[in-house]
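Incident log, structure service

09:12 report received: a user says their structure output differs between two submissions of the same chain.
09:20 pulled the input from the user's history:
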Amino acid sequence: MSNGGCDDQNCGCHSGMPRRDFLRITGATAAGAALGLPLRMAKQASHSEFENLVPANKKLSREWIKSLTARGKRSTYRGKDLRFIGMPIGGICAGQVYLGGDGRLWLWDIFNDIKFGVVDKKTTYLGREINAGGGANYVDPPEQIHPFEQGFAIQVDGKTRKLDHTGWAEVAFTGEYPIGFVEYSDPACPISVSLESFSPYIPLNTDESTLPATVMRFTLKNHSDKEQRCHIGGWLENPVGIKTFKEGEGTPRNRIVNDVLVCSLDTVHTDRSDCGDFAMGLLGAVDHMETALPGPDYAGLLLENSLHPTEETGRQVGGLSREVVLPAGKEHTAVFVLAWRFPNLKLPVLGDVGHQYATRFRSAHDVVRHVSDNFAKLYRDTKLWHDTWYDSTLPYWFLDRVQGNTATLATMTCVRFANGRFYGWEGIGCCEGTCGHVWQYAQAMARQFPDLERSVREMVDFGTAFHADTGMIEFRGEYGNGYAADAQSAYVLRTLREHQMSADSAFLKRVWPKAKKALEFLISQDTDKDGVLKNAQHNTLDVNLYGPSSWLSSLYIAALRAGEEMAIEMDDKEFAAQCRSLFEKGKKRLIELVWDGQYFVQRADFSKEDALRYDDGCEIDQVMGQWWAHQVGLGRVIDPDHSKRALHALYRNNFLPDVGPYRDKFKDGRWYATPGEAGTVICTFPKGDRQKILGNKPTWASMYFNECMTGFEYQAAGHMVQEGMVEEGMALTRAVHDRYSATKRNPWNEVECSDHYARCMSVYAVFLAASGFEYHGPKGHIGFAPKISPDHFRSAFTAAEGWGTYEQKAGDESFEVSITVRWGRLRIERVNLELPSDADFSRVQASLNGKQVGVSLESNGRRRSVVLRDLAIVDQGDGLRINLS
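09:34 re-ran on a clean worker, output below:
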């Protein structure tokens, strides 16, 4: 059994689960497997039994349905709900540190020790042993892990209170990535403390968003009627060499350098993964500095006035503190910065790749100084993005889920090499090579940090992974693994997206010859040139499909349309015509071959015994090509009638209000949704002979059909919203959100194969669908067609050079639109809108910063295109206003 190119033999990932782990989860016997005997198969459910397992009437409560699109309120957690919280709070691509529900920093995966599944955990569930890849951290989520001593505290009224759950009567946590908010209060204490924790996070500003640093911004407020004198401080154990350092190989050393506590390791073994330095700074005045607290009461010792600065190493826990005098009713803010520099990242095959942050900063001390020198702007812009994102009419829960999953970029799933290249595992330590068929689902990075996505296209897809003679792209970069039909199609689609998220056509001009060659390779796999793939089609389910499937061929057809669009822009008329011809054939042929009257299927080639088959099963990605086409403005690759009917069938046949009965019947597969939880499974067989389709000796990958994997669920949900099936799409999304409630597990760690799985960032496409966002930077086109509360809609948007807020209000006699740039700038020549009603608005006026601009109006049904007479540059703080009447 192939492991799909993953060298981690403990990995239970979907690139090929090692046989021993697969057997543990499925319950098949080792002896039977060794003899090549069939794996245990559940019998096919009868029609009536299928109805019981997958009810047509989902019986969702009115209150729950209403909550899907209601604005709601901020989510704040207290008490037991704090124990699993771990919000990534370091810079993106710079290591991983969690902010706990009580404000403690934990995990600290910054030492280049990239572990599969964060803690490489195993657990037992329903009598089976499950490893990290099987969902151990889903069914049994880890609580706080502290590899070294670190914390913060205040001293008031002679009492030391740690800034965690042990020091206060009430601790409340609100996580709105990129900022975590923690409130500490106690009736017995005259001082309350609020914390804003973050690393600078500014979409489009990649350098300032990839800092190896975490900011802890504490605000102390005096609630009493008299002056209060108090101290606030933080302490830090020297963690350098924590993984590899051995007694006698060097000396840990703490120093105070310009009021910054610097932790280092004096050793000749400087090439180790955890060799580097760590620093903590307290911005502004520092009254007390310690390099060696005698312990173990670090908080109390640090805040005692009798201590004095020392250069002795002693016990390697140092600290910084400040005295604060607070008049009645007043407050004071103290900002701590923790920073690190561990440059020695080495990967199998790739060797010494390093960290980009290490090329910018010579030390962790330099990182602290950089944050300190630029703090006002870094804090302002990070807060501005947070406020812009949440200044919306969309539901709070939905905004939390979308932006919260973007925090995957701030985990060890993602790194930025010293040469500037972005690199990602599928999940932490799981499956190398920025896998094309997984990462094509993830949409967040391309929209918020498009330069990182472009680095993958240019340095990997059309670089190290590209075969110049054929155009085939290895779907795992340098790790190889050859051609995958979904990945190859998506490389073309992603190229168009990256072009659209650029300010001009320079990127497309650079990559077009190779993008064209990549599409030509894909066309070569269409042996009879009818626009439908039929031969071996490797894919994200890890085993080849044979025979036409709407899933993979719809992606191929969408890629042909993308190729046509790019060829037109590159003035390659001949290739554009070739793509159009094949597209038209494929669009028609797809219906003829794989539409079965209710939904799209696969016409399996049963002569291929080792193939993955689903035949007339109802598969979650069956119209994925149209999902992609909507996102990059390609129009219809599947007509709306067939597309919507397929999605309705998917909701009917795959969405389970309770996965328990279904998984009790079909036990194979990993646990990413447990009994009592709702979810959407990958493939069901509502009318087919399941056992006949899968065969007497089904491929190990058949277990995926029974699983709920969030990235797939979001893809289906986003497409439903795109097609106007708002309730269904939001239900699928909310089901995932509810599964990741803090009462059960970490809301910021969606598990698939491993922790912080990249595919979860496909939820960003649900957000794009909700706003009906379309964009083409080089052409200056932007558009919105909100699907939720279109009469009054407001949300954030990101473009090539700036981001801001879009708002529309519909009245009986007018339709008002505003596009306000909060950061950067926006070039606009055309604004595409969709009216929420059939009102005949045919007059238009527009103004930029109060000054009228010349415009014309094009109408097509409810669609309106406002064309500016001259290119408009909307700068930061400026706004374009449009009024239709």
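09:41 both user submissions now match this output. Likely a transient worker issue. Closing.
09:42 reviewer note: The longest strand covers residues 815-834. The chain has a mean pLDDT of 92.
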